[in-house]
Structure formats: C-alpha cells, structure tokens
Amino acid sequence: MPQSDILDIKTANYQSLTSLWRNVAVPLDGHQSHSNFETAIIPKSQWPNRLWFTSDINPEIVTEAKALIPIITPDGYPIVVPYFDIYNSNNHAHLDAAGFINKTELVAMSTHLQDPYELNTSLTFQHVTTESAAKTWTDLYPHAFNYIIAPKLLTYTMQDIHYTLAYKDNQPVGTGLLYTQNNLAGIYCVGVHPDFRRQGFAEHIMRHLLNLAIAQGYTRAVLQASTMGAGLYRKLGFQNDFIIKNYILAD
To answer: What global pTM score does this model have?
Structure first.
C-alpha cells in the first residue's frame, strides 16, 4: 500500500472514532472543544467519557488536560484519555510522566469492502428504532463490555446511527453499531452476552454489519479491536493500522 494511503486510512480511522464520540455527545450537550483537545461526557453513562487530543501532545497540553479532568469527571466514572499512535513520536510518554495509567490498548484496523460476506446464522437482527429496543440494547451491553451506556444516548442518536440487536430464539444475545461518514463504515460495540459466547455470534454480527455497509455502497471499514477480538477481524480481512493506548488519571 502506498505511504499516502496508509496515512489516509490512519487519519480516517481516527476521525471515524472521534466523530462518533462527538456526535453521540452533542445531542445531550456532552461535547466540548478546547484548544488542544475535545471531550465527550454523558451523565450516568460510562461511554463515551473521553478526552482526546486533536494533535500530538507535549507536557503543557497534558498538564492542561490533567487539570480539567477532576472538574468534568461525571458520577465517579473515570474519563478515558486515548493516545493515538499516528504521529510516530512516542509522545505518550508525556502521559506516563504526568501520572496517567495505561489501562488498555486497542489496535485500530481497516479493510476494503467489496463483495458481501457469506452469512449463515441462526441469529435474527433488529435495527434499534424505538425506546424499548434502545433499553434492551443498553441492558445487554454491560454484560458484554462491563460498562454502562445510558439509554437516552441511543434514543437521541438512533436516527443517525445504526444500532443493532442480535437475537437467538427471541433472546437478545448481542449488540453492534454501524457508524458511516465520508465513504467510511465504522463498526463499533460488537459484543455478545457471556452466556452465549463461543458460538460464533460475534462474527455473525460483524458480517451482518459489514453487509449493511456494503449494501449502502461503502468501500472501506474501520474498527478498534481488543487483543481478544483482533483475530476474528483479521479473519474477516482487517489489517492493523495503529495502536491506541487508553489512559486514566491515577487516583
């Protein structure tokens, strides 16, 4: 892949994720822009709850963010500060030096979309368009991801963002989210209730969402994967773009 294409997809992957955070927070007055970073914080929700930098960082920018975090932290839930390794600088060391703790790492991934994915599944899928479906989605989500999303976040944004519920024999078992912009499909929040794991359902949800994107004419897809999930996404054709280090401020 030409170097310019690599840089473009890294930027697009970063923009897809941060745009999602911004756009779910705006309807709930949870987004703020600062000189060197943005925040997306929803009361009574553990997601997005992000502070992200709009350029590479230095000690002064980190100090500014660090001073703000105790003021804006909602409901005792920690604010996650992601560092996107897209600058080839290793400046995440400034976060380490300032007392932030690297809690998790994700790999940002992407793939080209062309032919629909084969999907043979016993699952059925529901596009979330009602308050009751939104509540079912947010009731299931913490079982898969161990953190809470407020139902109002879905009800305020489900006209613009495609939230999906997966059912097995009328039992909700999984969640997913398709977020599209600028000829790019972002796949997020793909999770399965622990009681229904190891049956291939996460892959089925992925294939369903990717096929929705292909049917709408999208030609690239991006996501961010845990170590546990990265193997599944490589199986579906995704390749690594960069690492995201997720920090929180030490107590």
So the answer is: 0.94
